[in-house]
Amino acid sequence: QVKLVESGGDSVQAGGSLRLSCAYSGFSNSRNCMYWFRQAPGKGREGVARIYFYSSTTDADSVTGRFTISRDNDKNTIYLQMNSLKPEDTAMYYCAAASGVCLSSWQPNYWGQGTQVTVSS
């Protein structure tokens, strides 16, 4: 059974940084596609970044150059380093996963419970 547990969400001032973590378990190996999504109040869920094994892709133009996804396969953990945070980054951040390579559609099969990030101006 795949399990994803996020941590690291907090309230910060604009311009600050946070690092989110997602510990995953239940996969037979590390060759899986891991995602970060976010959902702001009153908005739909947005893909932020994803990573397969050691390659990475950042999706949202609004976070390019500020957010970086990475993973530690020895620790079965992925990270989202968020710098230069803005109030519009305020959202619930979700870790998600799919077995195998990252496909063109951002449709993971497994989801975590989310961790809240709040950025104040």
Descriptive account of the structure:
With 121 residues, this protein is mainly beta. It is 0% helix and 54% strand. It has no helices and eleven strands. The strands form two sheets. Strands 2, 4, 5, 6, 9, 10 and 11 form a seven-stranded mixed beta sheet that branches. It has a four-stranded antiparallel beta sheet with strand order 1-3-8-7, with no helix packed on it. A hairpin with a 2-residue loop joins strand 5 (45-52) and strand 6. The model has no long low-confidence stretch (mean pLDDT 94).
Strand content: over 45%
Q: Which structural class best describes the helix and strand composition?
A: mainly beta
User: Largest sheet, described in full?
Assistant: 7 strands, mixed
Query: Quick one: overall form?
Result: globular
Q: Would you identify the regions where 5 or more consecutive residues have pLDDT less than 50?
A: none
Tally of DSSP helical segments: 0
Overall helicity: under 10%
Query: How many β strands by DSSP?
Result: 11
- Could you state the order of secondary-structure elements as H and E? EEEEEEEEEEE
User: What is the gyration radius calculated from CA atoms?
Assistant: 13 Å
Q: Would you tell me the overall average pLDDT?
A: 94
Spatial separation of the terminal alpha carbons? 40 Å
In terms of quaternary structure, what is this? single chain
At a glance:
The chain is mostly beta strands and 121 residues long. The chain is built from no helices and eleven strands. The strands form two sheets. Strands 2, 4, 5, 6, 9, 10 and 11 form a seven-stranded mixed beta sheet that branches. Strands 1-3-8-7 form a four-stranded antiparallel beta sheet, with no helix packed on it.
